[in-house]
Prior knowledge:
It is built from 13 helices and nine strands. It starts with 6 loop residues before the first strand and ends with a helix. It folds into two domains: 7-246, Alpha-Beta Complex (Spore Coat Polysaccharide Biosynthesis Protein SpsA, Chain A); 262-307, no CATH class. β1, α1 and β2 (35-42) form a beta-alpha-beta unit. By secondary structure, the protein is α/β, with parallel strands linked by helices.
Amino acid sequence: MNGVPEVSVVMSVYNGAEHLAETMDSVLNQQGCAFEFIVIDDGSTDASAQMLDDYAARDPRLRVMHQQNTGLTRALIRGCDMAKAEFIARQDAGDISLPGRLAAQVACIRAQAQAVMVACAVRFVGPGQEPLHCVICSTEDLEMGLRQNDLNSLRGPPHHGATLFRKDAYVRAGGYRTQFSVAQDLDLWLRLAECGRCLGIPQVLYRASLAATSISNRRRHEQFSMAELALASRRLRMQGKSDESLLAQSTFAPTAMAAVGSGERARFHYFIACCLRRDDPAAARKYYRRALRENPLHLRALLHWVLG
């Protein structure tokens, strides 16, 4: 790679070998802008580390760092600290950056000097890559959504991995914060919104895969607790006060990542089935059956499965 890249794509991987090749190829095949790809191997025990080293040996744009497991937030902090480019783009392992993603986001944010972040629309797919739904967030929706002060009305970008932001704004905002082992994206977005404009573009340029083992599914209670803390911190800042004492006094203690229980799996499969019910009834019945295998007393899943 010659010269300084325009974009530093930052990704953390923990035991993501199953879908890692498709993710890596989707980023490395991007065209229209110069980029580097920074991947933090966060203590993987599967084949991820070797796969990343193999890719790095073939492509000088890829920078791989191996470390003991620290969790997503600390891995992202390290990756963003390594970033050389004017812009940082997030990418999640297992997801896909569709062709033209980076070039479109760079063009959008360059067109507005006051812009600090841009998010593209996202297509969500199920565990079997079944199309579920698309989430499109306009600039107006995004800026209004990030100004809300309660969780019910708060709206951020469609997905963490679909964002690109200016590195200087990321630094001014304080970057990812270690107090947020989850909801680290929301905390950052709220602080970025205080630094400038947050843009939304309508093109679907990112594909996100939903899985029962995802952090958002396994740590829902912690996500809500941390989101409330992020909002409380923002309220203090809007009053001209520091939020450092609030974060220091927080009694929230992250729990170890537990195995996904049958209840969580049943709820996840039921959600996927409901997304598929209208456009793919046969696939929906398959997920209703999976929900019932996990929880035979899931009455809504039973009703939909019986009625077809």
